[in-house]
Amino acid sequence: MVLSYNNFTGSIPQEIGNLPNLKTVYLSNNNILGFIPSTIFNISSLQRIDFSNNTLSGNLPVDMCTHLPILEIFFVSGNQLSGEIPSSLSRCGVLRRLRLGRNQFTANIPKALGNLTKLEQLYLSENNFTGPVPNEIRDLVNLEILAIELNQLTGFIPHAIFNISSLQVIALSYNSLYGTLPMDMCSNLSKLAGLYLSWNLLGGPIPRSWPRCVEAQIMSLSSNEFTGSIPEGIGNLSNLHILYLGGNRLTGTIPPSLGNMSMLEVFGIEDNNIHGNIPQELGQLLNLINLNLQVNNLMGEIPQSMFNISKLQELSLAKNHLSGNLPSSIGLLFPNLEKLFLGLNEFSRIIPSSVSNASKLTIIDLSNNFFNGNIPMTLGNLRHLQILNLQSNQLTNDPSIFELGFLTSLTNCRHLKELSIGFNLLNGILPKSVGNLSIFLQVFQAYNSSLNGVIPSEIGNLSNLAELSLGINDLTGTIPNTLGQLRKIQGLDLSGALIEGLIPSNFCNLTNLVDLILSGNKLFGPIPICLGNLTSLRNLYLDSNALTSKIPSSLWSLMDILVLDLSSNVLTGSLPPEIGNLKHIVQLDLSKNH
After folding, report:
1. Over 90: is that where the pLDDT of 5 sits?
2. 35 located within any domain
3. Separation of first and last alpha carbons in the chain
4. Fewest CB atoms within 10 Å of the CB: 240, 250, 274, 328?
């Protein structure tokens, strides 16, 4: 009976048990719900059951294998089954493939599964199993795939598992397993293709026997507590495509032998304590698509050989101590680059205009370096650009052009979501064209970047803006009323920008506002009464201005506000008892008023 991939609904009829000669029942990938009828477990001729990817619920019967002596395949993955796995499952003595993943099974994995000595595939991932990985799994001498990811397992991984020479995949990621891996782990795993142990609590050194896993294609040990250095012989894993070692406590240097792993496509050792230079041998990895070395202690320059990796799509070297300059032809050398993360390093000199030749770029992060010179106008050619972060450098603007022309060029980047240019030496005027930036723009950060001139009213056209930061600049004029059109704004920082005039009353339309920071300006007049209606406000800084009149009583209704700073103004009046409404206040400063 093969009825998979239809649109069947309803439940499986109990009458299915009236088919005494049934060998195969495939009902996967339908919309079947309800319980699995107990009668089906009485059909002693059954060899194959596949109920995967439906909405079946309930428990498996305690005696489910009592009458299934020749069952070879039992697939129920992707349902809503619950309860414990019955120990009687071990009576299905010729079972070869067992898939129970993506359900709601609980309790410990039964030790009796070790009796299924014919078992080749064991899928228990994405359930709620607790307790240890049973030692008895070592008895599954024909096992090829062991997958128990995304559960709540604890304890040690039984070392005897690594003696099952038939294993091709070991997948135990996303649990709470701890302990070490045996140093001879790969001595008996000549067929291992995939090792998935990420997101556990495993520690100790990476086994020196790793190079013996010669068939390995994927090894993922990220987000654990492994220590020591990367084994020198790792370069012998010539079939490896993916190697994840990020988020551990590894030390030492990157072994030059990695350059021998010619099939490698993804290499990540981020968030460790790796030091030294990036070996030039990495430039031999011509199939590399994703290289992540960020958050380490690497130093020196990027080896020239690395710019030969034309297939590279993501390069993450952020938060190291790397220095030097970027090659003038970087965009031509990396034609497939989509994401470039070089922030928090010591790179210097200009940003090459050729970066625009990497036309697939969606993210550029060059923040917190020593780049200087002008921001290339050619960035506007990157039609797929979504995030541009250039903050905290020494970038300037062409002194012959008062306006920041690069912002006009960026209006061509119709998918831009985040633009950060703060903490630079731009010394220019925001052009009116800033209002033509991407309709998807959510973050515009130009804090402390030597801006001058007025805030263009056109900035109010950026209707999806959630954060606008123009503080600590040399701006003139008033706050444009059009900022009151930014209905999605959550953070507005105009502090220390030297602007004057009244606080626009239409700010009261900004109902999503969480942070309003207008400190250190020349604002005068009363505080708008309706600010008290902005119940999302958590931080309100109006200090160091020339605001007058009484503090609006409506402000005492902001029961969830954390910081209210009205100090250093010309406010008058007394404190009302309603001040006690500010139940969550952390900082209240009303000093230096009248």
Report:
1. no
2. yes
3. 87
4. 328
The alpha-carbon radius of gyration of the chain (Å, integer) is 31
Instruction: Please state whether beta strands 275-277 and 297-301 pair in parallel, antiparallel, or not at all (unpaired).
Output: parallel
- Tens of pLDDT, residues 333-349: 999 999 999 999 999 99
How many other CB atoms are there within 10 angstroms of residue 234's CB atom?
Answer: 20
Residue 64, burial from CB neighbour count under 10 angstroms (0-12, 13-18, 19+): buried
CB 69 within 8 A of CB 49: no
Q: Which helix (H) or strand (E) holds 517?
A: strand 515-517
Q: What is the pLDDT of residue 460?
A: 97
The count of domains in the chain is 1
The pLDDT value given to residue 244: 98
> Across the chain, what does the average pLDDT equal?
96
| Residue 143 resides in a domain | yes
Residue 224 included in any domain: no
Q: What is the pLDDT of residues 48-101, one digit of tens each?
A: 999 999 999 999 999 999 999 999 999 999 999 999 999 999 999 999 999 999
DSSP for 268-289 reads E--SS--EEEPPGGGGG-TT--
Q: Which two tokens stand for residue 131?
A: 């307790």
- Dihedral of CA atoms 104, 107, 112, 117 in degrees, nearest 10, equals 40
- Is the CA virtual torsion 238, 241, 246, 248 positive or negative? negative
Considering only CA atoms, which of 110, 125, 121, 31 is closest in space to residue 74?
121
What is the helix (H) or strand (E) element at residue 196, kind and residue range?
strand 194-196
CATH number at residue 34: 3.80.10.10
Q: How confident is the model at residue 18 (pLDDT cuts 50, 70, 90)?
A: confident
Scanning the structure block, which residue is given the tokens 């009592």?
Answer: 66
Residues 558 and 586: their CA atoms lie apart, in Å, by 13
Q: d(Cα 512, Cα 367) in Å, to the nearest integer?
A: 28
Separation of alpha carbons 443 and 419, rounded Å: 6
pLDDT tens digits for 389-422? 999 999 999 888 889 999 999 999 999 999 999 9
pTM for this structure?
A: 0.93
- Does residue 325 fall inside a structural domain? no
Q: Which residues of 343-358 are buried (b: 16+ CB within 10 A; e: fewer)?
A: bbbebeeebbbbbbbb
Structural tokens at position 540? 């309100």
Q: If phi over 0 gives left and psi between -120 and 50 gives alpha, with beta otherwise, what is residue 201?
A: alpha
How far is 519 from 564, CA to CA, in rounded Å? 11
- Backbone torsions φ then ψ of 519, nearest 5 degrees: -60, 155
As given in the structure block, the two tokens for residue 545 are 């201005």
∠ CA 229-234-237, nearest 5°, is 155
Tokens of 335: 């034609």
- Quick: pLDDT tens for 538-592: 999 999 999 999 999 999 999 999 999 999 999 999 989 999 999 999 999 999 9
Query: Which structural domain, as residue segments, surrounds residue 157?
Result: 1-179
Q: Which neighbouring-strand residues pair with 55? A: 33
Beta-bridge partners for 422: none
Q: How high is the pLDDT of residue 399?
A: 83
Cα–Cα distances in angstroms (integers) from residue 325 to residues 13, 300, 497, in the given order: 71, 11, 33
pLDDT at 364: 99
